[in-house]
Queue: 3 jobs
Job 1
Amino acid sequence: MRTSSIFLSCLFLIGCGGERVETQVSPGVEGVVSINFDDGFESAFVNGMPIIDAAGLKTTQFIITQRLGLVSYISASQMLAMRANGHEIAAHTRTHPHLSTLTDAQQHDEIDGSLQDLRLNWGINATVFAYPYGDYNDTTLASIRAEGFSGARTTSGGLNDSDSQALLLKCFIIDDYENNDINRITQAIDDAQAHGTWLILLFHRVDEPGNPISISHEIIQQTVDHLVEKKTEVVTISSGLARYGLKP
């Protein structure tokens, strides 16, 4: 939601590559955190979700619809089990392509097709989207608007607030490339909570040694423990959009 407080400018070292990102913060308003899992990897479901469920936190799961049931991906029944447990199921295309390399018709098939897959096959009306590889162009954005998505997440590093663009949400990727330091993760959480901003934590695989987009379940446990200890509000992407009054 938008506040009438006087906004202060603050710099944070956060996100991909550790770049400095300038964001507007509002004193006296606690920030929130979202937990995202991209792609629907089975290792995340098996090794990560029990930790999150035990803490009673809710995530947003961005699903590649035509990979459900394939090797290393969750099944449709596992996706539905997460939904039944209160997790948000969201769209992430049908096959996870670089969208900017596709024709307009191909982009439509990937984006609208993922919506139709979720709706017609499993009765899920997805309202938010994540760009595969964080890749998009003007055609992508036009398609996202045309399909009626309320928000979409990139892979650009940074925080979100009431001045953010709903279709270009930023995040903090946690993986073995570089963002696997629990102290850096907890500091990002504390900064967001203290300064009234919205931090989106993005995970992919869990406990797959040697895979650069994997993270250990210990990191997830420590992250969850910190969120619980600090009484940080954890929201789905849809709830975060509503909280900060963001519209496409």
Note: Residues 151 and 166 are 5 Å apart (CA to CA).
Job 2
Amino acid sequence: MPTPDFSGMLRWPNVPNCYGWLSLDQRGRWRMRGETVSHQGLKDFLNRQYAHDEYGNYFVQNGPQRVFVDLDYTPWILQLTAPDCLETQVGETVGELRGAAIDEEGNLLLEIPVGIALLCDRDLPALLPCLHLANGEVADDDALLAAIEQARAGASALTLVWHEQHLPVRALLRSEIAQGYGFIASPQESPPGDPP
């Protein structure tokens, strides 16, 4: 992922941070005050300047100002851009998966080098043939529903087979994802002297 350009920060050091304006939805779309960003130039800018701080707050660097991002779920959203290619919402190809999980709502989460990512729900049907049962068979709809029920109980018997990798699919609760992966879903302005 390219490093955002923070060079403008030196000229205007006292610009306040911005909260509550920008969000990232579960399909990887940027939203400003609830409205989907459709201007390609603005989307490209947001993608280039997307970063996080040491506290797990995600933001877009806008010159000297940090515009903090409210996350509908995870800081990264994955999409299948080809049958065997995953990309993040900022257009970076994912070359490595480090883990997989399913939550109690049936969302598929993938650990990638930059953090935890949600697979866009539109791409889940295309990735279903990669989910296998313990006996090696491809999971059918009934097996997937059973895995979702197992996730509610804290267990999963699925394996994700992707590019020669066989990743056990852990069961996770959605409410535990942010803390478990160290990110802040809704950054808040801190009192003076406290970390953001």
Note: Residues 141-152 form the longest helix (12 residues).
Job 3
Amino acid sequence: MNITCVESMGIPQTRFEELKKHYASIGHTFTYYMDRKEDEATLIERMREADIAVISNIKLPESVLKQCSKLKYLSVAFTGLDHIDLKYCSNHNIKVQNAAGYSTTAVSELAVGMMLDLLRNIVTLNEKIRQGGSRGTFLGRELRGKTVGVVGTGAIGTATIRLLLAFGAKVIAWSRSERPEVKALGVEYMPLSDLLKQSDIVSLHVPLCDETRGLIGKAELELMKPTALLVNTARGPVCDIPAVAEALCNSTIAGAAFDVFEQEPPLPSSHPLLSAPNCLLAPHIAFATEESFAARADIVFGHVDDYLR
């Protein structure tokens, strides 16, 4: 079979050369690319002859997939699959498999890191000291003792809970399904409205689907404390982002941190969060660490090997 990895995936060329030798030894061809191109013409060119393709979070619509008539299997180097036309794949017998678990630690650590920054204003104070300023009368807040509402208790949400408990926070949760191991940690599940009312910090960890799209909107934001913080490392459209920006401008909530948006960065200059106060932004980086990318390669090419077998 023809196996194609359409992007570099953050792993060294030496690893790709090892994979090329491995697949040649079992009778398959392996093509890889050391750059990332997201335009449809390039994707079609790279995938047209592929029986198996490896890709991360580059959007794969029907207009690309229908030009790849040989495609039988997609090993996706990403947890979410909302960037792929799964209906087309299902209708054309293209198996799609994600890489669950590779970034659990990475995402949970960034979520807590964003909470700490919002509480202690690390980025803002860094700029202040570089401009010749001082602490002045600034006082931060501690994570210990805060009530953190974790929305979604899958693998990443549960890992975040464990970190929060280590910091001495009180954790409450809402999820579409409740996990006994989370309850065993002393975490109470409750309706989302109650969680929003009680939380000092709300951290989002749900996948994007019809049920979760717009989960946090104007009405939900108005339930939160005016001192509360919102952290989104899940998917941008889980929130009504203009409503979040408005809530920040109106002091409905005290701060927010977003690593995900309606689109992949760069963001347009008119994006509402860019001008919203007390808003920490990152360029969809939570999943991206040296450790997670190495683990991701093991997972996605392990899936390819399993499929070939």
Note: Residues 104-281 form a domain with the Rossmann fold fold (CATH 3.40.50.720).
